[in-house]
Amino acid sequence: MISKQILLVLILCALTITTLTACSKPSTPPSMGSLLGDNAAGYTKVDKSTPIVFPKDHLSHDDFRQEWWYLTANLETDEGEQLGLQWTQFRVALSPKKSPEKAAKKTESHTKLTDSDWASNQIFMTHAAVTTKTSHLAEERWSRRHPRLADVSTDPLTIKIDDWQWTGTGADLFPATLKVDARQFSYRLTLETSAPYQLQGEQGYSIKSADASVASHYYSQPFIQVSGTVAIDGVDHKVSGDAWLDREWSSQFLNKTQAGWDWFALRLEGGSTLMLFQLRGQDKPSFYSGRRMFADGSGRNIASKDIQLQVANWHEIDSVSYPVAWNISIPSENIDIRIEALNPDARVPLSISYWEGPVIVSGSHRGEGYMELTGYEH
Fold it and tell me: Which pTM does this prediction carry?
């Protein structure tokens, strides 16, 4: 669950400053699992019978505890250099939404304190990163929710923290522009797709544990064409390539027996894509899920028993070892591949620490993609 220290930081920042980057970070950063593994008491629960509806579900779901808009891209510069790019905007609720009956019982003084235009129980955190073979740069911003600071709004669809902004042209996510200005890097990208969205799991209901006690609403767009400019240390590079967007919301992503996850978004030769994740159990077997997807909107879910993951190489960063190379076998899909990090040092060293970076695919299929590793920090 959220540590008392990080929760206190979030509350103080939400109430007192315009952006949370001015706040002191806790001396011991929380893990992704600790942030997302709390119980769902008081929040809306994921319901298998609730369909995902577009474009409404591109917007935020404030009655759930957390969600994210998550883009990864495998790009190439005009000079022929491989480059990975990540942008993720998280939303975390500090408390459940009050029912109308409870809201009516607030005292007058409490109403004056919490019902101002600047009060919010919604916190946004955005991570942005650029990775090459020799460098990994990552920065973050925090903010309470407010239309002038951080928000998700429509007409056109906009997802923002300050001047870090995803901006569509209408109610849909695409076409869009993505702009980020950080200290050591920046990017301005055009994002386009003609492919249908992919609903993960069972029509967007994605189970996260063997007993189905934890689940999320989850959809993806794995077929995005990217063009634009990335600046690193003041030097502009024209880039082009492919990107992958994940949208996910829930009130609990992990249960108490799970330590973290290994997630793979892979683009394979021949035009298909592959999503895989492993949720590692602390004292129980891991839970696996996967889907093979195609640009016409079709796809096949992969049975957990048919996914075989084996670590091929570990890499240590600041006394923490990360599995940066894997052998992946899926007999039902005739897939037997090895994935390796473009840059093994691609840990995201922010207030929440995890490993995130581009990977190269070889073996029965060639390709590229992204990998995220959480829960190894503690």
Answer: 0.87
